[in-house]
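Structure in, sequence out. Go:
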């Protein structure tokens, strides 16, 4: 069975719905979409055409707005469709297109929030629903580390690396900037856990090659137990484009940049 779509909306929302309908048309074809603007002609029976569309659909999109909630005709459409969806293998999907409450009877159904998510994401989810694809969209990777910079003296910078959510076991950090390596050194407190410092030519997650001084921490970096080290300026008065990285792939020497913040004393 081909995918058949029924679009239920109030005419006061027509400009937005027309845009959505034309996007769906490109994917599924006009003949597979009941949209009154092109599915009904002068002289057609409104109730007859509505009944025909409702009898044939596999996916029912109810566009929820203050206008459609107040409309008796739209209410008749979506309530009839909801009843058929309960008793048949039909997909009833609400799409919120304005700042309004969802009808109580639909409160236990997941809906697409075009008003909150935007047009492109909403239409993409609509297409996935019609094709019975999962609409899951990966979130950004969780950010666990943050590096805080504090100027101790004009020639010394203190950097504190903190874990926010979970522990990082024996991490390797890299301190990079545009200065040559002979213009600064990295120091740390030996009592904070045995560490090994060195230097590395690293590739970050944007494939940029950088030269950096590295610090390997021989303990877990846990929330509430940050690692602190200092950068001393040797042959320069300032550092350029400072960044801190963590090693994420030891085999390929791949590093990922840690977000930074500046702390004033």
């Amino acid at each position: 069975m081909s995918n058949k779509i029924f679009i239920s909306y109030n005419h006061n929302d027509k400009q937005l719905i027309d845009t959505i309908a034309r996007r769906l048309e490109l994917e599924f074809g006009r003949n597979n979409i009941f949209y009154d603007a092109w599915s009904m002609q002068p002289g057609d029976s409104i109730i007859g055409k509505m009944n025909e569309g409702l009898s044939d659909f596999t996916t029912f999109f109810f566009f929820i707005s203050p206008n459609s909630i107040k409309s008796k005709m739209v209410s008749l459409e979506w309530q009839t469709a909801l009843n058929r969806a309960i008793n048949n293998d039909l997909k009833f999907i609400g799409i919120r297109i304005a700042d309004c409450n969802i009808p109580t009877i639909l409160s236990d159904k997941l809906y697409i929030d075009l008003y909150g998510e935007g047009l492109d994401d909403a239409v993409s989810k609509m297409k996935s629903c019609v094709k019975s694809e999962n609409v899951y969209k990966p979130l950004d990777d969780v950010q666990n580390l943050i590096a805080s910079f504090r100027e101790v003296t004009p020639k010394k910078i203190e950097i504190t690396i903190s874990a926010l959510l979970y522990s990082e076991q024996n991490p390797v950090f890299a301190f990079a900037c545009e200065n040559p390596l002979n213009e600064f050194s990295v120091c740390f407190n030996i009592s904070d856990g045995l560490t090994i410092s060195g230097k590395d030519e690293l590739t970050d997650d944007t494939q940029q090659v950088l030269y950096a001084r590295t610090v390997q921490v021989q303990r877990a970096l846990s929330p509430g137990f940050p690692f602190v080290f200092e950068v001393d300026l040797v042959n320069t008065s300032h550092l350029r484009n400072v960044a801190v990285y963590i090693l994420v792939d030891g085999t390929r020497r791949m590093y990922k940049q840690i977000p930074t913040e500046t702390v004033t004393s």
